[in-house]
Amino acid sequence: QAAITAAQRGHTVLLVEQTARLGGILNFAQEDRDKNDLYLLAQAMEAELRRTGAEVRLNTPFSPTLLDEFKPDAVIAALGSSPAMPPIPGLEKSIVVQAMELYHADAEIKKQVVVLGGGTVGCETAIYLTQRGAVVTLVEMTDTLCADAYRLHGIKLRNTLAALGATTLTNTTCRAVTDTGVIVTDAKGTEHQLPAEQVVNALGMKANSCAALEVACKGMQYTAIGDCVRARNIACALDEGFKAAVAL
């Protein structure tokens, strides 16, 4: 959005993306039939960007040489976010996969799955996996599933989970991940072991660091936007991208 708006307002724009495609984490929606609107949003924005004539470079991580080559007057950092890794023993084990990774066309979905995190992403992932034949247990440490969803969407997700027969455990905290599942404690502090062939990390997102980029851009107009400021939602990202470009 920042690149589109800046180009439309007459600026010469270079958009640098380190992967082979634009769209960031929205690309997961390509494989989820319930999220087709998000995938279409990513496609529509890319088409709009191409129409502006802005230069786009894929497979291009940022480096200071780009600044020497392009000599920008302003830099907008939109480096996004990455899955959070709370200090849970065993969360780095090979049995653990990040929620977004399971939406890849070639992702392997195991039969017995525990999903850690009952926010919107965790609930949607649990639904996605259950619809594909997995037996899912969803673990949420608070007393409410989908607390971050707007009201009607939260109701829909909770009702869908119930209709599909997914097991949901609220007021339940993951204490450790093992090679064969997870260890949790319930509201009374009682410990339980949940067997699993696959454990899904849906424990939220954390902002990616912009420190190196900010240092490299010293003396230039520099603005950070979106999830690299704080992981939030699409509306916030688009709003900040538009406003950053208008402020140039």
Give structural notes.
It is a single chain. It is built from seven helices and 14 strands. With 248 residues, it is of the alpha/beta class. β7, α5 and β8 form a beta-alpha-beta unit. α4 runs parallel beside α5 (151-164). The protein is elongated and about 60 Å long. The two termini are 14 Å apart.
Average pLDDT for all residues: 95
| Uncertain runs | none
Q: What's the tally of helices?
A: 7
Strand content: 15-25%
Structural class based on helices, strands and sheet pairing: alpha/beta
Written as H for each helix and E for each strand, in order along the chain, the element string is: HEHEHEEEEHEHEEEEEEHEH
The total of beta strands comes to 14
Computed CA radius of gyration, to the nearest angstrom: 20 Å
This entry's quaternary arrangement is: single chain
- Helicity range of the residues? 25-40%
* Main beta sheet: 5 strands, parallel
Read across the widest sheet, the strand sequence of neighbours is: 5-12-6-7-8
Shape: elongated
Alpha-carbon distance between the termini? 14 Å
List keywords for this structure.
3-stranded antiparallel β-sheet; 248 residues; alpha/beta; 23% strand; 31% helix; 5-stranded parallel β-sheet; 14 strands; 7 helices
What is the secondary structure topology, with strand pairs?
Layout: H1 2-8, E1 14-16, H2 36-52, E2 55-57, H3 64-70, E3 74-77, E4 81-83, E5 96-98, E6 112-116, H4 120-131, E7 135-139, H5 151-164, E8 167-169, E9 173-178, E10 181-185, E11 191-195, E12 198-201, E13 205-207, H6 211-216, E14 221-224, H7 234-246
Parallel strand pairs: 1-2, 3-14, 5-12, 6-7, 6-12, 7-8
Antiparallel strand pairs: 4-13, 9-10, 10-11
Helix pairs in contact: 1-2, 1-7, 4-5
